[in-house]
Amino acid sequence: MNNLQKIGGFAALAQAVIYVLAFVYFGGFFDFPRGGDTAQKLSFLVDNQLILSVVNLIMYVVFGVFLAVLVLALYHRFKNSALVLSQLAAVFGVIWIGLVIASGMIANIGLATVIKLSVNEPEQAMTLWLTVNIIVEGLGGGNEVVGGLWLLLLSCAALKSQQFSKMLSYFGLFIGLAGIMTIYPAEVLTEIFGLGQIVWFVWLGASMLVKAEHR
User: Fold this and answer.
1) What whole-number distance in Å separates Cα of residue 71 and Cα of residue 91?
2) How does residue 215 score in pLDDT terms, banded at 50, 70 and 90?
3) Rounded Cα–Cα distance for residues 153 and 87 (Å)
4) Number of domains in the chain
5) Cα-trace Rg, the chain
6) Of 12, 63, 69, 172, which alpha carbon lies 20 to 30 A from 101's?
């Protein structure tokens, strides 16, 4: 049990690192020519296919793997003192894992298909790129309802079981609500959820590692 909690703690910290890397890349290095013509946009995708594919792999698929470990660890932590809440949280956690990993695979397969299509059908390729983006954003990139529900339920379970500090649990409730509110398409809500989760993952991971050492 202690080993699972330690692994879960490291998984939470790894997820925070992935969030930071994603913010750094898209905030400082991703320079997609939104105002350019179709040829410029497709040329950017061709030139950056490798880095975009790696970023999608890490940001979605690897993140999903770490999330699976964390969902399992937290379920086992809360099941004895908050069984129903931990079970319900685990359900939404598993759904979120599937959505996140699916987003990454769709993003990379879609990117590869767009680049192939761009050789002979540039306009269709651009239409496909927009479609892929909409699907990825809908599954997990811009809509964080499922992740928000998972975090909200976990925080309720944490409050009931008193496994973590009340401050961490209340902070989780706030960030979870922000995630649920991303059903309304406002970029600020997505940013609050993303930035808040970085803090939450670090805080949670540190708490799990410290408590595992003292058990």
Assistant:
1) 9
2) low
3) 9
4) 1
5) 19
6) 172
